[in-house]
Write a structure and sequence with these properties.
By secondary structure, the protein is α/β, with parallel strands linked by helices. 22% of the residues lie in helices and 27% in strands. It has ten helices and 29 strands. Pathway: Glycan biosynthesis; glycogen biosynthesis.
């Protein structure tokens, strides 16, 4: 368990983290055929949701709820295995909150706000003063205690975590228009012409999907919204715009609370919601000094970690040498007379002799057959790559056989391999 130091945890002791983890993640294509986006593997050992949960834990929050919905089995299994060490007898709690038609026998979660509203009785039972509402599908390190402190200091009705982005990139976000004191005076969802930041005409403030509320205020707003037949029951579309117009909404800049080690040059936040973005964020970790430091012992990323033997590299002869350069290799992997470069292997991957792998993200327990040549690929979990398969050298052939992106990354799943053998 993390140890609190200094004043950390002063406000977080009175807060609950509520993680919205029900997203479909459809832009990740076949990677989310069997799992929700927050359950997608990332970084060699973790799942995407582990970042939001670790931020909460490291910030001193000891009451956590996770709302799940679509294709939730692998996510619930991961949470049950890796996150149930929080103990009620220590005034801690961890609840998994699947959409279970608790309000109506015909209603699943209708939107992000409804995913909280349907669990109001559970939230009230926690008797916490603040709710930190989180999206479970982004990669970043952040101290929520600092955001809680701003929320209290400015006596806000809602404090919205915001990220500075180039205006031309802001069209895919909810964008804040703020005054000189960071009070939000307008909130626009995915605008064609995003408002600029004060004094920064080329930048916009985009919502991170992170909100801090006083609990009573939030529950009152959720009840009001639930009674509105014209609402879509969504925070970005309904709740936040209503508070901007009728209350006090304040922007919290991510740069003020992002957690950085000495090795990290700037604030790091990634939405790995497309196949290209997912591949790039994972491969970036193979750099000598990556933008995201997973080795930061002061802010660990907690997860369920399988018991696995050390990685093993065998054979040492020309053309058949087990070796890896600029790569991350997890426990239980066997590199048997194969070569890796700029590659990330998750737990239990086997790469067989005479294979050459470059720029690959290979998920747990995949097996790469002899003589395969793979470059710029993502291989799904437990896929059996046939002997001699070549991917990444013939774009037209790749596009016929696999999911190939505009940037030339190929996603390979077992059904795609089975069709080749068909």
């Amino acid at each position: 368990m993390p140890v609190e130091t200094g004043t950390r945890g002063r406000l977080s002791r009175h807060a609950m983290a509520y993680v919205l983890a029900g997203g479909r993640g459809s832009r990740l294509m076949e990677l989310t055929d069997r799992r929700a986006k927050p359950a997608v593997y990332f970084g060699g050992k973790t799942r995407i949701i582990d970042f939001a949960l670790s931020n909460a834990l490291n910030s001193g929050i000891r009451r956590i709820g996770v709302a799940t919905q679509y294709k939730a089995h692998s996510l619930i299994r991961h949470l049950s295995r890796g996150w149930t060490f929080l103990r009620p007898e220590r005034n801690e709690s961890f609840d998994i909150l699947p959409a279970s038609q608790r309000v109506s026998e015909t209603m699943w979660y209708l939107g992000t706000a409804d995913a909280v509203y349907q669990n109001i009785d559970i939230i009230e039972a926690y008797d916490v003063e603040y709710i930190v509402l989180l999206a479970g599908d982004h990669i970043y390190k952040m101290d929520y205690e600092l955001m809680l402190q701003q929320h209290v200091d400015q006596r806000a009705d809602v404090t919205v975590g915001c990220l500075e982005v180039a205006r031309e990139q802001a069209t895919g976000f909810g964008v804040m228009h703020v005054d000189d004191e960071d009070r939000i005076i307008d909130f626009v969802e995915k605008p064609k012409n995003p408002p600029a930041m004060p004094g920064k005409p080329e930048s916009s403030l985009a919502s991170m999907g992170i909100y801090v509320f006083n609990t009573k205020f939030l529950l009152d707003e959720l009840r009001r919204d639930a009674a509105d037949p014209g609402s879509s029951h969504d925070f970005g579309k309904d709740i936040i715009p209503h508070i901007v117009k009728n209350g006090k909404a304040v922007a919290h800049h991510f740069s003020r609370s992002c957690v950085r080690s000495e090795a990290e040059s700037g604030p790091y936040w990634r939405d790995v919601g497309t196949v290209d973005a997912y591949w790039e964020a994972n491969i970036d970790l193979t750099a000598v000094v990556p933008d995201l430091d997973l080795y930061d012992r002061d802010w660990p990323i907690w997860t369920y970690s399988e018991l696995a033997p050390p990685a093993k590299f065998v054979h040492d002869e020309d053309g058949r040498r087990g070796q890896a350069v600029s790569s991350l290799v997890s426990g239980g992997c066997i590199i048997s007379g194969a070569s890796l470069r700029r590659t990330l292997l998750f737990t239990g991957v086997r790469v067989n002799s005479y294979s050459h792998i470059e720029g690959a993200v290979i998920l747990p327990y995949a097996d790469v057959g002899r003589g395969a040549r793979l470059s710029r690929v993502i291989v799904d979990a437990a896929v059996q790559i046939p002997e001699g398969l070549v991917v990444g050298e013939d774009p037209e052939l790749d596009a016929r056989r696999f999911r190939r992106t505009e940037k030339g990354v190929c996603l390979i799943t077992q059904p795609m391999i089975d069709r080749l053998r068909g």
